[in-house]
C-alpha cells in the first residue's frame, strides 16, 4: 500500500472535506480514497447493502406496554407444535 501527501489544501477545502466526512461517518482519509476510486472507476459495486428507511419513524415510539404486546405476539408465533414436528414414526 502506498502513501501520498497532498499539499496546498486551503481552509475552505479542508473544512468541506471534514464536514462531508462527518456527515458520512467516515474519516477524511477514507472519504478521499472513496472519491478517488469513484473518479477513476475503481469503486467497488455495493451489492446487498441497500439501506431502507421506511420504518425509521417507528423507531423508539412504542410504549413499554406496546413493546410487551408485540413481543408476546412474536413469541407466540415462534412456538412449535410438538405434534406437527415430531420425528417419531407412526
TrEMBL record:
Taken from the record, one Pfam family name reads FitA-like_RHH
Q: Which SUPFAM superfamilies match?
A: Ribbon-helix-helix (SSF47598)
Domain (Antitoxin FitA-like ribbon-helix-helix): residue spans on this chain: 3-38
Instruction: Report the transmembrane regions from the record.
Output: none
Query: Which GO annotations describe the biological process of this protein?
Result: regulation of DNA-templated transcription
Span of the secretion signal?
none
What name goes with this protein? Antitoxin FitA-like ribbon-helix-helix domain-containing protein
Source organism per UniProt: Thiocapsa marina 5811
